[in-house]
Design goal:
47% of the residues lie in helices and 9% in strands. A hairpin with a 6-residue loop joins strand 6 and strand 7. Helix 1 packs across helix 3 and helix 5 packs antiparallel against helix 6. The chain is globular, with a radius of gyration of 24 Å.
Length: 337
């Protein structure tokens, strides 16, 4: 802790604990000095707790555009389309002091391709506490909405959760994982909050961010990637135009998806459908090396090759794409080490 923070914290603890009485009668001038210092501090910071405890203020919420760009370049592998969209979308939204609506991103692709990881990078470059921030809210279908028969209750609860948290902090982030397992129709309950309204019941949702994560549409993404591969094209030649329209249509018509026939798509409230491509052997190696660095281990290319090679790939004979992507790298690496 910085010296000035430590001094203020000690001062606050002393003042609040009543120790000023315990040290009497050393000098009333000490107490007066302490009170003056505390008053001066409070004049600079409206609330001392805002200084030490997370609150909805710029000290705790501040977008680092350069940080997000560097993280996407150095930590996300094999996702040239997703990286470009995410950076432009988040940068444009966070730099706009008066957005017309909340930012709504829908991330799609097979497991292990980086959807959750990207959500984490976004949070870390907006909130000082990252994913541990009290303003980042993660919902998973199987945990928060397990029973189909209680969907009406879930709708009401979800509306209250979103409204309450945005009322508390306009820059709240909501991450909905496992959208492909969510009960169809449930997500429509928050449709008004994602629309072009200045305020609803006195609450503005325009500075909030909603991120949907789903495996839905992954088969179509893989089909397109395989077609490019069979034609001898590099994966970097795949563009958003090759995937976006078919992705939104397939997700909208997927009866097993929480976005099935949703008004969010029908009313064009999803700002970006972000495709995540299947990962190749070289990307898995990068994931292994990154995991070694995360564990503070010396990068070992031989071990990285071994871990990557032992994963399951498809098509079976050609072994082009890893079935689970980088999903199980951490546990696999522990085995090889």
């Amino acid at each position: 802790m910085k010296p000035e923070k430590r001094h203020v914290l000690l001062l606050w603890m002393l003042f609040c604990s009543g120790l000023t009485e315990a040290i009497e009668p050393i000098s009333t001038s000490i107490a007066v000095g302490m009170a003056a210092a505390l008053t001066g501090f409070l004049a600079t910071y409206q609330n001392i707790f805002d200084y030490f405890h997370e609150c909805c203020r710029p000290e705790w919420i501040s977008f680092n555009a350069t940080g997000l760009k560097v993280d996407l370049e150095r930590k996300l592998f094999g996702q040239h389309i997703a990286s470009r969209i995410i950076l432009k979308a988040v940068n444009g939204f966070m730099s706009n002091s008066n957005p017309k609506k909340p930012l709504v991103l829908s991330l799609h692709g097979w497991t292990g391709t980086g959807k959750n990881f990207v959500s984490k990078l976004i949070a870390e470059n907006i909130f000082r506490e990252g994913m541990n921030s009290s303003f980042v809210h993660v919902f998973t279908s199987e945990l928060h909405f397990p029973h189909k028969g209680e969907i009406e209750t879930y709708k009401s609860q979800l509306q209250q959760w979103v409204k309450g948290n945005v009322t508390n902090c306009a820059h709240s982030m909501f991450i909905f994982d496992e959208m492909d397992k969510m009960h169809p129709g449930l997500i429509d309950s928050i449709k008004p909050y994602l629309d072009y309204y200045d305020k609803l019941d006195g609450v503005s949702y325009r500075k909030a961010m909603f991120i949907f994560l789903s495996n839905a549409g992954g088969d179509g993404i893989i089909k397109t990637a395989l077609e490019f591969w069979k034609l001898g094209h590099n994966r970097e030649e795949i563009g958003l135009k090759d995937l976006e329209d078919s992705l939104s249509v397939s997700v909208f018509n997927d009866k097993n998806s929480g976005l099935w026939h949703t008004s969010l798509i029908d009313k064009h409230l999803v700002d970006y459908f972000v495709p995540f491509l299947p990962l190749e052997h070289k990307h898995i190696i990068q994931c292994v090396l990154a995991e070694m660095k995360e564990k503070r281990l010396q990068p070992n290319l031989d071990i990285a090759h071994q871990v990557a090679t032992d994963l399951v790939y498809f098509p079976k004979l050609d072994r082009v794409y890893a079935v689970k992507g980088c999903k199980t790298i951490a546990s696999k690496l522990d085995y090889y080490l």
